[in-house]
Amino acid sequence: MSKPDRITLGSGKVYYKEFDGKTIPENNAIEVDNNILGNISGGATLEYKPSYYRAKDDLGLIAKDILTEEEVNFKTGIMTFNGKTLEVLCETGRVTETSGMRTVKIGGISTQSGKSYIIHFVHEDKIEGDIRVTIVGKNQAGFALTFAKDKETVIDAEFKAFPQDQEGTLIKYQEEIPVVEE
To answer: Is the confidence at residue 57, as pLDDT, over 90?
Structure first.
């Protein structure tokens, strides 16, 4: 096992791609400019929360824990966005474009898309190597658009993860490590 000596500083880029329910594409297929969800403000947070059931006797002499549930959330603030971004962040968002006008309609339970997205975060580090975090999920936190005279509008998105493969994987975490030549 290698010594944990990496210090991670800074934010990164968040990409998205509609998930076809089959496989996650290679990193280079996701990490293209057309797949950038928006520039980030306030960083990004990945949360993993396990839940356990504990069986124990009345006297507290024996106990056994089993993992019963896992929850994963990816949160970030999106500072650059447009109507197409809102479509990704809202399951009932519908976008049309005609004659130089983009219109987004939001709402109507019967219009929900059922789409899930690959959310792919890349923290670039030229010295210690890049870190990538990939989940499949949907924004389930809704959003607020605040237009203030002295502050940029940032959409706080919270994507809840779904299993991305037959093993039930919720997070794919990748870090570049030095290759030792022999």
So the answer is: yes
